[in-house]
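Section 5: illustrative case.
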């Protein structure tokens, strides 16, 4: 690896979390660029690579035949020189309750841009805090990708909650000949809404109280409230609020925690939902974060979203450092912002 060709990314910048690491790996594979990530998760209580970050690295290495250094728990510096991404059948097991959706996001774009179909089998956590759930991926993220030419099918086999894990799902990724431009700048009327209180191995009154809180605070009809009692290796609970506004189904989630009341768990998701509805934008905070990467690797575009989080701002800086794109944020007033992604024009 020629040192002058290596792009160096500082993992301590901005939000300083694992997203910097995952975005860097994804772009390195898609663009065929060698990278060095230093100060990985430097600002965290347990800095360096944890098991789920290592799972992302090893998945990226497997699909691209990359040359890698720093492939170990706790590593704060990783070099990654990708080869050509190979479509095919892959099985990625985190070996813990670490998020399978974050592993999926690391390899999704490289496999979409590969020259054949891929099938993945992912094992670990499926409904985690601090990560999009399987439901968010299926209901919110993938339908938007479908609209710009990215065909991805998913099927959940087993639920996996923290800390037991044990979840599993399948993915079929069809090659995208061209990723089209994305424009989401107007929000339609709310067509439908659904609240799902999901739980495994905990008393049913917990999800009943969560749904009661949604009914009380959102005035949603009984028909839109769904209690879903599922089986899993360990106990778990999540509230998921879904609103379809035409081109987008937004999903707002809150994971149940020990010593946190059902009402508070529901309340977190309700606050996110109300902020989104009051802002009048089509794209929520977490969806915007996930759409910037496919926009940068495809035809660009514009999305109207909430005030950018530190997570999104950091993600944008990493993308701009590796990909030859221009990303402009414009405040329209209050909690209403435009994110515009375009190819740089040489002048």
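Designed sequence:
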């Amino acid at each position: 690896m020629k040192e002058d060709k290596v792009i160096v990314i500082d993992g301590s910048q901005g939000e300083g979390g694992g997203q910097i690491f995952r975005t860097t790996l994804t772009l390195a594979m898609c663009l065929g660029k060698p990278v060095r990530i230093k100060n990985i998760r430097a600002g965290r209580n347990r800095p360096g690579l944890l098991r789920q970050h290592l799972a992302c690295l090893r998945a990226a290495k497997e699909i691209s035949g990359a040359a890698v250094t720093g492939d170990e728990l706790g590593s704060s510096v990783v070099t990654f020189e990708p080869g050509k991404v190979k479509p095919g059948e892959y099985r990625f097991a985190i070996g813990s309750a670490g998020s399978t959706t974050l592993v999926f996001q690391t390899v999704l774009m490289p496999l979409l841009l590969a020259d054949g179909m891929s099938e993945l089998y992912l094992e670990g956590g499926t409904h985690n805090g601090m990560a999009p759930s399987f439901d968010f991926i299926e209901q919110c993220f993938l339908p938007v990708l479908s609209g710009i030419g990215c065909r991805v099918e998913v099927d959940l086999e087993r639920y996996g909650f923290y800390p037991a894990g044990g979840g599993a799902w399948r993915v079929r990724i069809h090659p995208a000949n061209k990723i089209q431009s994305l424009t989401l700048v107007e929000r339609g009327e709310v067509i439908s809404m659904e609240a799902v209180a999901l739980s495994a191995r905990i008393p049913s009154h917990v999800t009943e109280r969560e749904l009661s809180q949604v009914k009380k605070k959102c005035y949603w009809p009984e028909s839109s409230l769904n209690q879903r009692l599922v089986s899993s290796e360990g106990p778990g609970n999540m509230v998921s609020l879904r609103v379809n506004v035409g081109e987008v189904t937004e999903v707002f989630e809150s994971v149940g925690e020990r010593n946190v009341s059902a009402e508070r768990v529901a309340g977190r998701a309700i606050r996110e939902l109300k902020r989104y509805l009051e802002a009048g934008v089509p794209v929520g905070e977490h969806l915007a974060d996930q759409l910037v990467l496919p926009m940068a690797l495809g035809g660009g575009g514009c999305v109207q979203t909430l005030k950018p989080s530190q997570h999104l701002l950091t993600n944008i800086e990493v993308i701009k450092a590796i990909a030859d794109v221009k990303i402009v944020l414009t405040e329209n007033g209050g909690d209403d912002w435009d994110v515009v992604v375009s190819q740089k024009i040489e002048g």
